[in-house]
Design goal:
initiation factor; mainly alpha; translation initiation factor activity; Eukaryotic translation initiation factor 3 subunit A; BPS1_pln; 5 helices; 2 domains
């Protein structure tokens, strides 16, 4: 009887439309999170490459110190952006979990599938961003430990090259 009323199908269609719009908004939010994470990682990558370049050219310590500062500033900004993205993902996850969708009909099945895809995407992004941001212990370690490791690796590589040269000359 209820389904035979003239405005019932229209009301049901509007409700399904609202749910689809909600899911599409969630997808756009996921794209925003991905863009934010990509930008932060790109900036960190650029600073890392500049730091490696300075280490290879062995410029003065002042130039090295400036590049190290820029690197750590970019890492801090990246971590901040990633933390913000993780909060947004958690908010989206809670919103998705609290929303109710019916699985009635073909549209309901599509909405249900989109909801599942969004939930999986949120989970994957959370895992990836958590991995990229690194453990808290790394945040508190000495900042110069990275530089000393890089310098040690370069020294080892130079010593190996020197030994090969000596072996070649004899």
């Amino acid at each position: 009887m209820f389904l035979q009323l003239p405005h019932t199908p229209q009301a049901l269609a509007q409700e399904q439309h609202r749910k689809l719009v909600e899911l599409l908004d969630g997808s756009l939010s996921l794209l925003d999170v991905c863009g934010t994470a990509k930008d932060a990682l790109q900036k960190t990558k650029e600073c890392t490459q500049e730091l490696q370049s300075i280490l290879c050219r062995r410029r003065g310590t002042e130039c090295l110190a400036n590049e190290v500062r820029k690197y750590f500033t970019s890492r801090k900004a990246a971590r901040k952006a990633i933390c913000k993205a993780l909060k947004n993902l958690k908010h989206m996850e809670n919103k998705l979990a609290s929303s109710s969708f019916s699985k009635d009909g073909e549209t309901g099945a599509v909405i249900s599938t989109l909801k599942q895809v969004e939930a999986v995407t949120i989970s994957v992004l959370e895992s990836m961003l958590t991995f990229i941001s690194g453990p808290e212990a790394e945040l508190k370690s000495s900042r110069w430990s990275l530089i000393s490791k890089l310098m040690h690796q370069k020294r080892v590589m130079c010593e190996e090259a020197e030994q090969k040269t000596i072996a070649f000359l004899h």
